Input
Amino acid sequence: MAKKTQTVQVKVRMTKDLQRRIQREADRHGQTINAEILGRLEMSFEYLEKIAGWSERLGAGIAQLQEAMDETMKRKLQERMDEAKKHKPSEGSTNE
Output
C-alpha cells in the first residue's frame, strides 16, 4: 500500500525566462527548482502576514497620535479662548 503524504503535485506553466531565473537561484542556493519555488511561495505568505501585522500596529499608532493631537488642539484652543476672555472688556463697563 502506498504511503499517504500531505504533499500534492501541481503542474505550473511559466515562461522559459522565469524558469531559467528560478533555476539559477536554485543552483545558487544549492537546491532543486521545486525547493526554490516552494521556499519563495512560503516566504510570500510570511511576508504578507508580517505586513498585515505592521499595518495593524501602524494603524493603531496613527489613531493614538491623532487622539493626542486632537487633545492638544482642544487644550490650546481652550487656552486661547481663556486668554481672549481676560482681555475682553466686561459688559457694562465704559472706556470714557
